[in-house]
User: What shape does this take?
Amino acid sequence: MDQLFKYFALFNPLSQEAENAISRISSMITSKKNEHLQFIGHTCKTIYFIKKGVARIYYYKDGIDITESFSFENNIIARVESLFTGNPSRKAIQILEDAEIVAINAGELFKLYDTFPEIERLFRKIFESAYVETVSRIEGIQFHSAEERYKALLCDAPNLLLKVPLKYIASYLGITQVSLSRIRAQR
Amino acid sequence: MDQLFKYFALFNPLSQEAENAISRISSMITSKKNEHLQFIGHTCKTIYFIKKGVARIYYYKDGIDITESFSFENNIIARVESLFTGNPSRKAIQILEDAEIVAINAGELFKLYDTFPEIERLFRKIFESAYVETVSRIEGIQFHSAEERYKALLCDAPNLLLKVPLKYIASYLGITQVSLSRIRAQR
DNA sequence: CTGATTATTTATCTTATGTTAATGGATTTG
DNA sequence: CAAATCCATTAACATAAGATAAATAATCAG
Assistant: This one.
């Protein structure tokens, strides 16, 4: 759990009691490549922290598997469109590289908000920063070609290539794997 | 201010004291078409609530005016990428239809978070829901043509057309106004 | 080791959108 | 009120990004 609390401290350091409270509603999971953490149709009731490994969120668009996002070590992953609305999610979470994960029970977490304003503040800040990232991703999608986005992605996450099949990267970029191959081929 | 507190109550109803505290750090503004609420390069220190009128956030991409978002009556507008980071914003806020606006001092508001957890919770929820909207907008941009996005936009905000010049809608959709005209022409 | 999955290559084709330019209507402003 | 500016439409043409299909090569996993 230490690793998790170090990550939290980047946003809002917690008191010992708050950390204990979070520990109590969390569990450690190990999961192997290609396994699912969450399935399509279920309502999201867990926030995951990736200690080690890689995961993605994906969904089906017209029967085609689309990767919405990747998450690496030392990051949170959650299907916010379900977590914050209570609606069932059309999305799934899948492990792409053997992973160690902390699973935080979201229902219990939200209850902790009442007794620990510092915890509410922590997650407010975490999701504010995720929100800001998402806003700037829109700009990237709308005004850059697939090639530019691919290069930007590599800058952002250079080890992505080592860990993730290209077909997932292609769908993340919004193109076919054939197109991605072509992009990679030029030089 | 009543209208604002009704809007707030949709997310998290406030106590009388909390409402008073917010009133104290807010001011009423009226602004005419084409005026600016916020300029490029300034750090965002205000959250606006639109009681009446229309506004947009825009920025320049390669010298071209791009509309990032529109906001209508009964909605919040803020440049979150600056508000949450403290960085100067590359974006501006402009009024598109004569407006009455409540301006909330963000610095003071964030201080209120310490004394009024209910206010922190309120804004947490407001921005969580904005975040969810933004996530789904990405899907719209990546997997729908400009034509589909235009139609979806009209569904979403039917009175947009009456209030906003088409050139702004075009840049919001990521296309030129010539292309938008062509899309509108077919039937 | 062998079948299954994944990646690459090539070739062809589609189509959405950009660019430029001309026009007429609307709106602002001196 | 007239001139000037801005806005939306239309047309003609260009183009380039990416889809699709099919065949091959490489890699992975049981």
Q: What stands out?
A: Chain B has a mean pLDDT of 94.
